[in-house]
Write a structure and sequence with these properties.
200 residues, six-stranded antiparallel beta sheet, 5 helices, alpha+beta, Jelly Rolls, globular, 434 Repressor (Amino-terminal Domain), four-stranded antiparallel beta sheet, 10 strands
Length: 200
């Protein structure tokens, strides 16, 4: 089924050095050393240093840890990297921030304008892929829902697993943030879904 979310547009420029520079600026703006960020995020000093020097591209899991330490959602961090720090009320389809996890091929696109609350994010999860985020990624989120558009998505929330099919929507209890993972266990079908995030 084709819709506006599937419309073809030119691929965005790789975030690469923009993301590396944004991570460094977020850290420096807080007066943190690389050691401080490592302690707060659980990411090693050497990995943070390589990411900031644009020697490696961070995975979704690493971005989840780093953004959680900064008190930002991943989509806000990515939007800031592209210079979309806020101000606009309209998010044009061809200008929406897009990012692909180099490890899984997971593709996320920020639907809402940068800084909007709640945030809307469109995700495409390749067959067999799984992306996990630590509880710290949700410590500053007061509400979250996931609505599956196509395929099936397994959500691992702490020790609970829930399978969602196309059309299903799940809300989360954010009173006690837990580690969460999103998995597409289909061997050949992509899973497409929309995530809403409301900040505290």
């Amino acid at each position: 089924m084709s819709n506006i979310l599937d419309a073809e547009f030119p691929a965005p420029e790789p975030l690469g050095s923009l993301l590396a520079g944004r991570l460094r600026r977020e850290r420096e703006a807080r007066g943190w050393s690389i050691t401080d960020l490592a302690a707060l995020s659980g990411v090693s000093r050497s990995m943070i240093s390589k990411i900031e020097r644009d020697e490696v591209s961070p995975t979704a899991a690493l971005l989840g840890k780093l953004s959680g330490a900064f008190g930002l959602t991943v989509s806000t961090l990515l939007a800031r990297a592209e210079g979309d720090g806020g101000g606009g009320r309209v998010s044009r389809r061809k200008e929406q921030s897009r990012w692909t996890d180099p490890e899984t091929g997971y593709l996320r696109r920020q639907l809402s304008p940068a800084g909007a609350d709640p945030e809307l994010v469109h995700v495409e999860m390749p067959p067999g892929a799984e992306v996990g985020y630590p509880a710290a990624s949700y410590a500053f989120v007061r509400g979250q829902c996931v609505w599956v558009l196509e395929g099936a998505l397994t959500i691992i929330d702490g020790d609970e697993e829930t399978l969602l099919s196309a059309g299903d929507c799940m809300a989360f209890d954010m009173a006690m943030p837990r580690a969460r993972a999103y998995a597409n266990r289909s061997p050949n079908k992509i899973a497409k879904y929309v995530v809403t995030l409301a900040r505290r």
